[in-house]
Design a protein that fits this description.
membrane; TspO_MBR; mainly alpha; TspO/MBR related protein; 7 helices
Length: 151
């Protein structure tokens, strides 16, 4: 395919751009700062660079999957994780609803793990690229659960 670089660029720009826009629209405020947080809660400045890198990886994996497995379960799972991912910040910060956000992040965790499992044989590189994402989402889910329990 001649337009491969454009597909990669489009996926990365769209995912990174949407992720950053959602993040900028749901910035932690006084409500969040007033919540009790666990000892393992990282400083706020950590989240933007981590998510920026992860969004670039998510876009890269999305493009790989689109180019090779467009009509596959892997592609459907990729879109599912993106929906859960983009829904979490508005639920947690926008609605100030850690319980709903917990349900969303569990859906995200399952969809990322399922993507890795489904992609493993067809595109091991894409599956491996999602492993750090899975680890971060698992950490974020533990953080969400701890905030839910402490408040």
């Amino acid at each position: 395919m001649k337009n491969k670089p454009l597909v990669y660029l489009a996926f990365i720009i769209l995912v990174l751009g949407a992720g950053l826009l959602i993040g900028a629209s749901n910035i932690p405020d006084e409500w969040y700062r007033s919540l009790a947080k666990p000892a393992f809660n990282p400083p706020d400045w950590v989240f933007a660079p981590v998510w920026s890198l992860l969004y670039a990886i998510i876009g890269l994996v999305g493009a790989r999957t689109w180019l090779t497995l467009r009509r596959s379960m892997a592609m459907r799972l990729w879109f599912a994780q993106l929906v859960f991912n983009f829904a979490w910040s508005p639920a947690f910060f926008g609605l100030r609803d850690p319980a709903s956000a917990m349900i969303i992040i569990l859906g995200l965790l399952v969809s990322v793990a399922a993507f890795i499992a489904v992609s493993w044989r067809q595109d091991r590189t894409a599956a491996l690229l999602f492993v750090p994402y899975l680890a971060w989402v698992a950490f974020a889910a533990a953080l969400n659960a701890a905030i839910l329990l402490l408040n």
